[in-house]
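Supplementary Text 2. Reproducibility record for the structural model of the 173-residue chain.

All settings were left at their defaults, and a single model was retained for analysis rather than an ensemble. We include the record here because the model underlies the residue-level annotations in Supplementary Table 4.
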Amino acid sequence: MPNAYGYLVRLIDYNNWANRGLLEFLAGQAPETLDATTTGVYGTTRETLEHLLTSEMGYRHRLAGLPRYEPTDRPERQDLTDLQRLAEESAANLAALVDALPEPDSMLPTSSGQRAAATILTQLVMHGVEHRTHVGTILGANGIEPPDLDSWAHGIFVHGDDWPPDWGPEPER
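Retained model, structure tokens:
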């Protein structure tokens, strides 16, 4: 049987890498990009990232058996630096959570009823993918090519997976 722990660490690493990568990309864009939006997405880039990151903190609180997450001392309208700080806080918390997860079938309270710990963890990861995709949609709709933050890119850029020939010449790493 494979080491499930290693897979879980990699999954959380991917989530944290993708959040960081998106925020680093946005740091190179015009400031008004944070207030851009388009139809069919959660809200503006800023609102989507605030929602994604504070939700991660909330999921982590549930999984760690902590009281409900209530953001404190955070600006009402977070700038890019605030979002990066929140992403780093979330990343550290999620990396530490891997060693302290409850049993997958443990039922935990949420605002919408009892949920299995595994369901909450799955939601944490899928929720991040969904909302990072929303930001990519916003960027594309506004003429900005979004960064490649999928799991293939994570494997290639972080873990040394082979460079796909159809991606063209491999850049210097």
